[in-house]
Design goal:
The chain has 423 residues and is an alpha/beta fold. Helix content is 29%, strand content 26%. The chain binds ligand EPZ. Ligand EPZ binds next to helix 1, helix 5, helix 6 and helix 12.
């Protein structure tokens, strides 16, 4: 397994281009199942998760052609559809569960393997299935698969109150409702930019959707959707991650394609910590205001709150801040696995359940560390960039799921970083 070697210490200067969003592309791709006409995505990120989704859609009968070095995905589902999403693919990537709504809407039935838990939490699908049941689906779990059947072969509109603003459930229900009979209203819907991006694409395909980006989304079902071309929104999590690089190492970096309104509460926390974020005509410019980072308290919340997908990276920054920070993880029950690895680098962190208390130290020290999940892996690279000596991050296959060309992007602004093939 590959690892990444980082020699810390230097300030970073220059520009980093930000790719299209993994978490938008992973919900936009299943939308091809909603129409027999072509759907083309541009600005697609080149990631192993996108390859897994391509494999899944192909197993369901879709044609997915990757063009322009993977930045364009030309998709079409005009032939027969296989409505069974196999465990062997689904277990590799939870987002595979986003084919459930589209398959049910198009074919009236679906058999989707339950993804099971992952490193950061149990991640059940009850909000998805309760919503689809309200729309007239009969769903039961057999042999690890959700067997779903729409009453009379067609879903019907319903008023659905979510107990929690789940991103995945909002996406699944929104897609399912586009072809349902009547009107669906989702109350307490997720408001993430990826939801707005999906709604924008579905509207381009002829769907009738209002309220995306607010807690109440209304979808008027239509008989048929047509083809479209859609540009994937910028990846706000990749953006936030690279904004922390000059913050943790010093220097000034411009993030090409970055926008402040994609980041919600994240920018307010950077400002409070002593980091300047400035909009430019190409994106965002980031640098420390002066001297050392200040401690800040952070609580993860659904958008526009502080994103849980930037919690690990923010912890890496706060390890060298002046003072003590309290981080509360409110979205996932087990998302502090990067803390013991950062402590191997000399960080002072006390984890109690969903709360981590980080007391800043002068300097981190390089060490061999282990990536446990996608965002934890990049937080260790950020910490290595600021540490004395060498840090070797093992199991970087986690990283490949959500970050394209990390070594090229960071060495492009002066980082001393390289990828080491197979141990
Ligand atoms: C999406 O996951 C993202 N993944 C996650 O990013 C992100 O962390 C998460 O939203 C929150 O922002 C993709 O978009 C592919 P949720 P999702 O449904 O849809 C509980 C990354 O690093 N819940 O909003 O699975 C659930 O267990 C990944 O890129 C239920 O209890 O998130 C979790 O605790 C990691 N029942 C919380 O809600 C349900 O039916 C948030 O889940 C659904 C969710």
């Amino acid at each position: 397994m590959d690892s990444i070697l980082v020699k810390g210490g230097g300030a970073l200067n220059g520009q980093i281009p930000i790719a299209g969003a993994k978490n938008a592309c992973l919900t936009l791709m299943p939308a091809t199942l909603l129409s027999d006409e072509p759907l083309t995505l541009t600005n697609a990120p080149r990631l192993s998760d996108i390859k897994t989704m391509t494999q899944l859609l192909a197993s369901l009968g879709a044609e997915v052609t990757s063009l322009q070095d993977g930045k364009v995905l030309a998709m079409s589902t005009h032939g027969d559809i296989n409505t069974r999403a196999e465990y062997d693919i689904v277990r590799k990537m939870r987002a595979s569960n986003l084919v459930l709504g589209p398959l049910l809407a198009r074919e009236g039935h679906a058999e989707v393997s339950l993804p099971g838990g992952c490193a950061i939490g149990a991640r059940p699908m009850d909000i998805h299935t309760d919503g689809l049941t309200k729309m007239g689906a009969e769903i039961d779990l057999r042999d690890g698969y959700l067997h779903a059947k729409a009453d009379g072969g067609k879903l019907k509109g319903a008023v659905i109150d979510f107990p929690f603003a789940s991103v995945g459930a909002t996406e699944n229900i929104m897609m399912a409702a586009t072809l349902a009979k009547g009107t669906t209203v989702i109350n307490n819907a997720a408001r993430e930019p990826e939801i707005v991006d999906l709604a924008t694409c579905l509207r381009a395909m002829g769907a009738q959707i209002d309220g995306d980006g607010t807690p109440t989304i209304t979808i008027q079902g239509v008989d048929k959707l047509h083809g479209a071309t859609h540009r994937v929104v910028t990846d706000r999590i990749e953006l936030g991650t690279y904004m922390l690089a000059p913050a943790i190492c010093g220097g000034e970096v411009e993030l090409l394609g970055g926008k402040i309104d994609l980041l919600g509460a994240f920018c307010e926390k950077l400002d409070a910590a002593g980091i300047n974020v400035e909009e430019t005509d190409k994106g965002l410019k980031v640098a420390r205001k002066n001297g050392r980072i200040r401690a800040v308290d952070v609580t993860t919340e659904p958008f526009p709150g502080f994103p849980t997908d930037l919690q690990a990276q923010m912890m890496a920054l706060l390890c060298t801040a002046e003072g003590t920070s309290v981080l509360e993880e409110k979205i996932f029950e087990n998302r502090f696995m990067h803390a013991p690895e950062l402590m191997r680098m000399g960080a002072d962190i006390d984890v109690q359940g969903g709360t981590a208390t980080v007391t800043g130290v002068e300097k981190l020290k390089g060490a061999p560390v282990m990536a446990t999940d996608l965002r934890a892996s990049v937080s260790l690279i950020l910490a290595g960039l600021a540490a004395e000596g060498e840090t070797r991050v093992a199991r970087v296959y986690h990283l490949d799921r959500g970050y394209e060309h990390v070594v090229r992007k960071l060495s492009g602004v002066g980082a001393n970083i390289e990828r080491i093939a197979g141990d």
